[in-house]
Fold these 4 entries.
Entry 1:
Amino acid sequence: MKAFISIALLLIAGLAVSIGIGFHTKLSEDTLPFDDDQKGINDQVVIKFSHVVAENTPKGLAAQRFAKLVDKKSNGRIKVEVIPNGGLYSDQEELEALERGDVQLIAPATTKLSAFSPKFQVLDLPYAMPTRESIIEALNGEIGKTLLQSIEKGNMKGLTFWTNGFKQITTNDGPVKQPSDLKGQTLRIMPSPVLEKQFQLLDANAVGLDFNETYRLLESGELNGEENTISNIYSKKFFNVQSHLTVSNHGFLGYAVIMNEDFWKELSEDQQTIISEALKETTKWNQTHSFDMNEEQLRLIEQQSDIEIYRLNDEEKENWADQWGQVYDEFEEEIGSDLINKMKKLRVKFSDL
Ligand code: LMR
């Protein structure tokens, strides 16, 4: 009898739960009040934008600005999800993730495209673009156009270029004034044959490593130093684990903004226009402010740390440029003489060396 009562109670309880679930489902499907935020949610296009730097950088801020503009221009129908700090993919991984379509947008340093298109190394030539104006002319002109075309062979749609700034050198083994001061030092660089060659010429040991590994390796002493923009040195706090900073302006660091091509083709013409317009506005903002941001962050490093800062004078810069001169000839075949010649002309036009 007891067993019969227990089974009956269980059945009644089960029935009550099922009715509850059914009622709940019915409620959410049919009778919940209309929520404007959910309207058209299934038609929303989501663009995952992965990058490796901090948010308070020229790229980090441009990415956020772009996301806001797209949201506004599309009335929320296109959403850009920005994932900074390599939170989703590291430098190397993000290119593969883009090609697979796991993310739709990335903005890798142009250097990181050299394995894919060796022509990109033209932007890494030492002292190639001596002023910010020369950089803007290279990126927005013929050189940039040729470079973006050169990556069309992959599942990539090159959209525009963003700037960060000039690269500087930090080390725990300084000061670094002459090229020979780097002899024997182990330095982190972005993976790139032309950068490797530059440091080889100075008898330094340059290693291509992921950006977000750099702080740890500098702190542990496995690396003596690295080269990067002030903005990256500041936002990733490299200055806290380095004793010397040389303001050399010896190279450029900027970004190619690239979309997965299949994804781009599936967008409607209207959606493409919204993205292109938002990108155009963002690029203008980025190219106008990135260099000042670097200058401001150099002042902050000076205020916040006791790292020793040395600024190369013009004569010293000329010495560094001479030491690296042969790189132009050695990479002419890989990069292409047309691009190298265009860059040499630009260098002369804007030279303040
Ligand atoms: C680096 O690896 O040093 C840079 O590419 C990081 C960045 O994206 O600015």
Entry 2:
Amino acid sequence: MATRSRPQSSILPTAEPVRSKAAQLRAELMAPALSYIMEAHNGLSAKIVEEAGFKGIWASGLSMSTALGVRDNNEASWTQVLDQLEFMSDATSIPILVDGDTGYGNFNNVRRLVRKLCQRQIAGVCIEDKLFPKTNSFVGEAQPLAEIDEFCGRIKAGKDSQTDDDFILVARIEALISGWGLDEALRRAEAYHRAGADAVLIHSKKSTADEIFAFSREWAGRAPVVIVPTMYYRTPTEAFEANGISMVIWANHNLRAAITAMRAVSSRIMNERSLAGVENEIASVKEVFELVGQSELTQAESRYLAPSQPAPRAIVLAATQGVKLGPLTVSRPKCMIDVRGQPLLRRLVATLNETGVRDITVVRGFAKATVDLANIKTVDNDHFAETGEVSSLACAEAALDGACLISYGDILFRPYVVSDLIAADGDIVVVADARWNSPGHRAPDRQIDRVRCARAFTGSYLDEGPVPLVAIAPDLPTTETNGEFIGLIKLSADGTTHVKDELARMRADGSFTMADLPDLLTRLMARGIAVSVLYITGHWLDVDDAFDLAKARNLM
Ligand code: SPV
Ligand code: MG
């Protein structure tokens, strides 16, 4: 392994199970073996570096800028860089050494930078002895260098600001790059080391490592030496080990690989006008999901999300012709009359769909062939002219299974009415309009199904839950009427069982054929089965006669 002299550190690798990222980076830097860190420029590339087995990440300024589509001249602000780092840090468990350029200003900017880096568990920063705004080291010649004392101030300020004792500050010496020679590089290394730098990075743009090795011989391990062999890439890694280098930064190779790969795939798809040629040469969508840990989210959802209740199915009773609508229902049933450009039933189905109710069985009768909407199931009551609502409901008995809604086919209501009904407590809950008697609501002679409840509507918080139903019939005295049944019922799974039992009883006792839903509800209550009422105040309508239709068309 390496024959270089080892820098001393009080913090060496230990058997501790969990170390901070800064402590991990410190251990790598101070260890006798040569360590390598690999460039990343965003959360994805950082994950890939970790996946490859690297012990650390170089958050390259050149790569992060380029990935953002800007130049490595501090065109991306330091907080924009910080945002990238936050994603990289969150996405990985290995330490990140960030390329902090010049520290983005003077000592004061370095202080703020280091505090923010520590907050985001960034393990260390490398700052270079140039001036803000910086230029990449491989651009141009003889870039100006910072005054040594001023740069030492930046180092001290950074070290004084770290909130993790293990945070690493690497001082980067640009003297060789700028043509100032080995002695100047060593003078600077010594000053920066004394100012508190944990390591020095000696940079070179030569194609051989000669000047780097000359530096490291003279430096003799006074502090760890970090290098970036982008230009002297042919030098064997064993030579770095043999010359006392502590850490190698592979500085921009993921970015450059991405550029090559993205160019190849884009131009191929452009030229071939097809994805077929590239599909097997690029990462699969499955791999994409794996990289970001999609399965963890699925597990977490099963742990933390409340199990969603399956939406009830719905049975819509739409068999009647609706003779009171005269010529409008000669060739189609009233559920199919036009209400402002759409059949009434299509509007009803859309409202149910909006609340998650998708399994809808419509009981057809009169002119059944005209009831032909998409997304509904149909069953037929071919005896619609001689039978009542309960017979129609029985035609849909196969759909009476588990939680169910039963709705008349000639009503419309706001979606919240269904949502509130589904959420309401109770095995059998019916919706009633407490404003049943308001002026102009109905044609004066119109018969409605009146309900009497255990408590009248109050208009206060008391109305929030359903109230027990006491009676339901068209002929309740006005003084005893608390609302109008709108033709919408919710059954829980138990409620559905009660209804099916009652249908069987009604079949057996002969009351089945002409019975309507209020008769069914009355029989259930007589057997001691609780039925409740959810009050609403308007926000619904039914279409029974020309008066209702005019109102419906106005409302839509
Ligand atoms: C970087 O990766 O941004 C560096 C290394 O600073 S270099 O581009 O070699 O200057
Ligand atoms: Mg850089």
Entry 3:
Amino acid sequence: MKQRLPILTLVFTLGAFVSTSSFAKANRYTVVGDDEKAIEKALSSVGGKKEKSYQHLKGVATYLSQGQAKQLEEMLGENGKVIRDEFFQAIPPMEAEIQGKPSGGGGGTPAQVVPWGVSAVRAPQAWAYARGAGAIVCVVDSGIDMDHPDLAANILIGANYIDGTTWDDGNGHGTHVAGTIAALDNTIGVVGIAPEAKLIASRVLDNRGNGTCGDMADGILGCLDLRDQVDPGHLNGLVINMSFNSNCAGWELVEAATQTANAAGAFQAAAAGNYSFYSFIRPAVFANVHPATAVNQDLTFASFSNWGFVPGVHEGWTAPGNNILSLWKGGGTRTDSGTSMSTAHVSGVAALMYSAQSLGVGAIDIGLPYEQQGFGLVDALTTVLNH
Ligand code: CA
């Protein structure tokens, strides 16, 4: 008996070691499937528990070890898909980090500025024909500063798809994008491309600009739900602005959401990427999503911008993206650069397209290769005259 004891001890130790190594590190997963009750039951039988239900995506978020995830996958079979879905840097650091001191937002606010990008896409000339009324733009981002004095009157509704709390902008990025699209035409801040368009805030990114593919997909579907709430008759055109990177493991969820949004009639614009390489990031690369590359103020191609328009494959434009003055959280303004900013210009012009009830988004050939400019520099004036 005494001689067997060490062997038993060894077996026990090995067992403990195996279970420790496979259960110690929990990763975030999204489990999708039509039957949420069945997913929850399977989840509890592998020792996991639901972190949250999504609002629109069919499925749940959870934290599991790799071993548990594998077990769950086998258990669910065709009734569910287990997708690794970690928080991912969806806003590139060059845009998300505070680069300069924000201005305005207190006493002594400077007079309203027309940013160079708004002029470059000829929005002021287009305003004689349309100013954005009749268009709703859903900004899927870090939220929108809900009481920004140069924006609040245009915000219809918002929701947080991360944890159901506030959709107020915790980063600033979403407010910057929203300002380029629809900052008010008044005496303060900037003026947006479509100053009479209305905004929906779909918050999917946290204060650092991180998000999960599950939340991004939920937030895109959320745009459709929020639109139904504020415009049940769908009398307005819907634009969805996606100034983020969804190259996370669960990108198929985001792709499926963009397909649903397309079927619902939304115009979707997305950032080409700030990585200076050929080919677009997701979701810009998805079918029926319009990529936006970036140009500088002298209309040369921005060095940070991805490119890679292929005729017949991608339908998109280039747009102002460098040194763009717009709004920031806390009530002020800030200059930022990136294809997120160019995406906002495309969305603003798309809002004018709906506002003018025109046939499509217009462009100007600025002489760049097709793979860089796509249809050309996005242009508000030819857009509103396109009948
Ligand atoms: Ca203004």
Entry 4:
Amino acid sequence: MLHTQNAAPPAPAPFAARRQQIEALRGQFTGLNTPYPRADGTTGPRVYLDSAASNLRFQGAEAVVDEAMQHYANTHSHLHHGARIMTEAYKQAHETVRQFVGAPETHTAIFCGTGVTGGLNRMARVLAAQRPERDVAITTLMEHHANDLPHRKHMREVVHVPLEMDPDGNAGRVDMHALRTAIKEHGDRLNYVAVTAASNVTGVVNPVHEIAALAHEVGALCVVDAAQSAAHLPISVAGAAPNEALDVVCLSGHKIYAPGSPGVIIARKDLFERHEPEVVGGGIVEFVDAKRYDVTPSLPEREEAGTPNLPGSLLLGATLRILQRVGMDAVEADEQALTQYAMSALNALPGLTIYGSHRLEVAERIGVITFNLHDLPHGLVTAALNDYFGIAVRNECFCAQPFVRQLLGIADAKGIAPSDCTDACSTRAQPGMVRISFGLYNTESDVDAAVEALQDLTSRPDWYRERYRPVGDGSGDWVHTEFEAPPAAQFDLLDASDRWLDANAPTSS
Ligand code: PLP
């Protein structure tokens, strides 16, 4: 068995002390203040407001990995010191993930390469193969493509449940009444309900434990996409009661301050037990001859063929351990305060529409806010925030096209785009929004910088419009007509490598 009993973290410090600890961590992320040139000829530090795409690397965990790398060796070697130290540390990384998400012993944590996308694709394949008689999956209309397309690919039928509208007519959580009806309707044929814990478009949080309990009533499973929520909210796989336990949870290391780390599937062990692993090779077999091979029954080894991404896994383990000690309740409180501050400030801007429910009492939100300005396209706003103010945000559809179109009013309640989709959703003028999203490092001054910049854009839209042109490649993006900042002028991989080699050249005698 790979799992060891990790020493439980020491008893948590008082809540106020942990909030203070967040203050001490804020500045300790790589790339937080990187200077970039601006269109007005100045250079300034960036303001990073794109954490929903990927957040920045936590230096504390990086230091832990540097220490570990003194011992680096392959976990498939066994008897020398380095190999034994790495094997043990790798086990600790698995166990830390399991503890971080509050998973019981019935669950395993599997590192699986390509983030939540890899995890959900694998789980859709596994669950379709395990229970072929159950050929329906239910998901919602607020999903990232990663929690929609794999189910379409591997299930016979996928039902998309609509969302609740709040009293202002804005989209909130999944509509629990419609979900209950869909679950009952598909009963015996329902394999699983796949739902996001928090939307990457509106930031709205779903009641995943309530959903798990409903799915379990008909013998179906609950698969949770925690890509967006993991860095922002506490998560408990076990739930408050056995029928609320989540069967599968997937998360991405690059969205929880550990870029370069693998994704993780935390899932019930029995889901893999009778399943031939998708990937076979070294590290997972007990016996091999030219005729047969026997795969180990041990999890997670059985599902992790090949040499693991050890630095990435250790980075994730160290990051989660530190976050666990700070406490995700403190992280959540910190971010809620900043999100409320940002919502109020953005709401006060004339000509700005925020998408999704603003009512916390019916739709809790994480620090993800999407909006449009009435006078300017999303691609122009995003480029101008970068070029004139050094503010990094994301635009377009955030890999959630059905949801974004619906929020923009160019798809029906079932998420279907009109067949004569012309201007509003043509490839020349891709619809979209602008998204601001927060990490632990963001402060009110970052929000103020964004609000001031947006004020400037709304006060003189024509001035900006004259300086930009659409790229015209189907992305909905715009570029400055004159200002250019070629990426290679700031960082060039080959040049950086050559510089290192030159600086370390042998001195001629
Ligand atoms: N699910 C949600 C809600 C996301 O926001 C994302 C990425 O943005 C994903 C899934 C996919 O994550 P990854 O790109 O790490 O596979």
